[in-house]
Amino acid sequence: MNLSVHSIFDSIDGEYNGFRGAGQLSTFIRLQNCNLRCTYCDTAYARERPSTNDMEIKDVIDKVNCKKVTITGGEPLLQKEGVQVLVQELLDRLHLISIETNGSLLPFAINKTDLYKVKYIVDYKLSSSGEKESMLGEVFAKLRFSDVIKFVIGNRQDYVEALDIIKTNPDWKAQTVFSPVLIKDKEEDHFEMDLPRRLVKWMLEDHLDNNNNNIHFSLQIHKLIWWDRPITEEH
Questions:
Q1: Closest CA to 104 of 85, 77, 66, 143
Q2: Which of 6, 64, 181, 207 could be cross-linked to 30 through a Cys-Cys bond (beta carbons 3.0 to 4.6 Å apart)?
Q3: Are 127 and 161 in contact (CB under 8 A)?
Q4: What pLDDT shows up at residue 205?
Q5: Helix residue ranges, H only, 63-112
Q6: CA-CA distance, 131 to 20, in Å (whole number)?
Q7: Coil, strand, or helix at residue 97?
Q8: Which pLDDT does position 185 carry in this prediction?
Q9: For position 21, what pLDDT does the model report?
Q10: Cβ distance 34 to 53 under 8 Å?
């Protein structure tokens, strides 16, 4: 079986992943093609599916160097059947796996015995993304305690929306993360920290540590480490 692969590379897992927070060494398998067009997309180069970059799953496995593997995209669940086979092959080799998906497609079920070995990291797209209407509530309701819902926050409106969604869905079980959109200052050639700072301030003002949601703050630390590299260069 083949997968349409954009790239395979080793780096750090720069965001909260449900295993040990962030910062684990990981092999990234970036799959090609996405069904959404988010305004702040930082992997637009992986959105279209080419006709010449298919790989057999055994060849993908041969390029995995780290115990932790991050399957990302594009949107991995557009190739659901192949990803299921890939995940099982990785599990047979004792890997830990994160599957990053965009909240618009139903995930495949993970065996109970693999509950803490495979974790879904699912984005919830808010208004600033332009894809809020693409979110499927059923996706988030099916997630387990070991999975992660990542609210991508682009402004104050997104933050308020996220809190409202959390309040109106008290039965959701997954861990919750607020992740600010990082924007590069073209004149200063670094990432602006105004939004991340304001997001932390809002979370403190609203005492988000004093509820049952245990909301985490997550920053894309890989971008901060390799801030001077082109966005299309994997790291």
A1: 77
A2: 6
A3: yes
A4: 93
A5: 80-92
A6: 29
A7: strand
A8: 63
A9: 77
A10: no
Peptide bond into 137 cis (omega under 30): no
Instruction: Read off the amino acid at residue 197.
Output: R
Q: Look up residue 24 and give its two tokens.
A: 């684990």
Instruction: Give me the count of residues in the chain.
Output: 235
Read off the DSSP letter of residue 128: G
Give the residue among 70, 68, 52 at the shortest CA–CA distance from 5: 52
Residue in the block written with tokens 């600010």? 180
| Of the candidates 63, 72, 110, the residue with the CA atom closest to the CA atom of residue 91 | 110
pLDDT at 193: 81
Predicted pLDDT of residue 230: 65
Helix (H) or strand (E) holding 4: strand 2-12
Query: According to DSSP H, which parts of 72-171 are helical?
Result: 80-92, 137-142, 156-168
Q: List the one residue out of 81, 66, 74 whose CA is nearest residue 37.
A: 74
Provide the whole-model pTM.
Answer: 0.92
Sole residue written with tokens 């115990």 = 67
Q: Which domains does the chain have, with CATH numbers?
A: 2-225 (3.20.20.70)
CB-CB contact of 180 with 153 (8 Å): yes
CA 6 to mean position of chain CA atoms: 16
Distance set, CA 95 to CA 38, 60, 61, 64, 75 (Å): 31, 14, 11, 10, 21
Residue 140, both tokens: 């988030």
Give residues with Cβ within 8 angstroms of 15, minimum separation 6. Answer: 22, 121, 150, 177, 179, 218, 219, 220, 221, 222
Run means of pLDDT, 10 residues per run, the chain, 235 residues: 93 87 91 92 76 85 96 96 97 96 96 92 96 96 94 96 95 94 67 87 89 80 76 64
